[in-house]
Amino acid sequence: MAGGHLMEKKTIVFIIMDGLGDRTSDRMKGRTPLEAAYTPNMDHMARNGIAGMIYPVKQGLVCGSDTSHLSLLGYDPLKVYTGRGPFEAMGLGMDVMAGDIAFRANYATRKGKTIADRRAGRIDESTEPLSRAISIGIDGIKFDVSSGVEHRAALVMHGHGLSSDVSDTDPHENGKEVHIPTPKNESAAITSSILEKYLEKSRIILDEHQMNQKRIADGKLPANELLLRGAGKAPDLEQFQEKYSMKGSYIIGIPMIRGLAKMIGMNEIPVKGMTGSHNTNYNGKLVAASENIGKTDFILMNIKAPDAAAHDRNPEKKLEAMERIDAAMENILGREDECLVILTGDHSTSSVSGEHTGDPVPVVFYTAGQRKLGATGFNENHCSKTGFSMESGNVMNYSMQLVDRLEKYGA
Ligand SMILES: [Zn+2]
Q1: In this predicted model, what pLDDT tens digit does every residue of 160-171 receive, in sequence order?
Q2: Centre of ligand 1 from the C-alpha of residue 229, in Å
């Protein structure tokens, strides 16, 4: 701690614009969407703050939102990340706790032991009634199923002493027999046998379920098998408050990142008029952040729109999102005595290819009394020119020393 100062520490407002970085395109006249966008508020922060570039996790890695958010929060994904399963389950809004085992799942059509269609004819109705029916307990283990779009779903096994070293039941091809879950080593034997019991029970429930009876009567394929793949154990992450001695709060719409924030013990700051994953209530989010400066130590915000627009290969839509986000930034401008604002992205998403890329993303640390590195605006080009860069895993420590929350390293 900074030697006995009694003054209040500044609140860190960490704003992650998902898929912020991009590549240039003809549609943007050779610029990136952020370079082409009119963003006076974020430009002001870049000019008057520490602007540079962040490499998500490590130079050259192409990161998902799960691994890049972990890293930005100071949890090294190369050490703690156990696969997509738990994060995809959280993405469906499921509660996932340390030690739970999560699988990616498909509703499929099974005839005898053979998988006739891995997607049950691409289901066009919600499978939620089926998922509810097969969310049951077996031998003290709670099985939770949640439906995604079409045939997609996820299964979470809640309990103690479970192992993720269990094989897929998904044969990954139509016309093949469904696999029996098998342990990859001794430690997974119990998990595997409970899972097998569960699947036998679920087949009976799914075969008898009225939704499947009706599908058969309508000449459709029944969704009578839950095919599993990609078992992953939810990581046992150190709680944010213990790790940093800061109270953490979040303002996040997308379920996967909300799940991560919850998992590390952060508290939700409600946003007025927020309607879940597809909300674009930028102003509401920034108002909520502004109202909580001084009330909490750390606010994590994720804004999904730039990533979504880039996945749609729509640079114009990304540009528009950036301009609307910038307008909402007005709510926190002028608070630099009370807070440190961090503006950055979790990774770059190309609005040309529609895919994530390994390019670094712009960052600004903006607070009163800090250095100014001479960036002339907030975008890939201007922020690169300061020459200041870091890997995402160092952002938390760097921020904490800016608000005098780090202890001295050495004498
Ligand atoms: Zn993405």
Answers
A1: 899 999 999 999
A2: 22
